[in-house]
Amino acid sequence: MKKIVMRTVLRTCAVGLIFLIAVACAHQSTMTTRAATVTLPGTGDSQDLLRAVAQHYSSQFPERQVIVPDSIGSGGGIKAVGTGEAPIGRVARHPSPEETAAYGEFKYTEFARVPVAFVVSPQAGVKNLNEAQICNIYAGRVSNWQEVGGRDLPIAVQSRPDGGSNMETIRNQIACFSDLEVTPKAHFNLRNGDLVDSMQRISGAIGFMPLSEAELHGFSVISLGGVAPDEQHYKLGIGLGFVYKRPLTPSMQNFVDYLSTTPAKQIMRDTGHVPVL
């Protein structure tokens, strides 16, 4: 009788111990998962898109958090990964030879493409410009919208950094822009956010940005040589992706994998992007 009681007690203790271990492991797993926040520093070209996808992702997986900080540019994202400050960075271009020489080789994963669109202030009165007109405007040879079929209003050229993904795409794809010297009268905008502010404030302005950014802020998007940015044969586009050096952590890989799901792709299409994963 005593042996039976003893066996029952031992069994009860063993079951209780297993239960406690399981609870502790589950708690530890939950804490680890919650602690594995994914932070994606880098370009402003994918900032709004990734914030929208991250919000939907976290609504589906409340224990997973993805932070998309304000833009530091593709160069900033590459530098953060290259110096070890961040394990992954968001970019709108591949690392340059100079960056590879400074930081070594990077791995690159592209998840979407987005057209680069020219935008004008509503007062300009134009809906289409050809490549020669674009180049003449940015060179300062044309300074009034009336000269290209618009209203009698001075043109306020808005420029971006050379080496940035948007400017690089334009220089590579528009022949007359390849070595064009932008008029010294142009207003320089370091980041997309700066250009958005300028386009909202300055009458007669012209600038260029990702189509997704232009649509988000309701800017007047013009056609290039009669081809709209959302048409298949539009020639200006940039790839959006991530750079990293080491294999991605499970938390990072989970989010990258989510970018290939139907909900994420729908968000991309709704915001003027083309999914590529």
Structural overview:
This protein is α/β, with parallel strands linked by helices. Strands 3, 4, 6, 7, 8, 9, 11 and 12 form an 8-stranded mixed beta sheet that branches. Strands 1-2 form a two-stranded parallel ribbon. The relative contact order is 0.18. α2 packs antiparallel against α10. The radius of gyration is 26 Å and the shape is globular. β6, α6 and β7 form a beta-alpha-beta unit. It folds into 3 domains: 34 residues; 119 residues, 3-Layer(aba) Sandwich (D-Maltodextrin-Binding Protein, domain 2), CATH 3.40.190; 110 residues, Periplasmic binding protein-like II (D-Maltodextrin-Binding Protein, domain 2). It starts with a helix and ends with a strand. The longest helix is centred in the first third of the chain and has 34 residues.
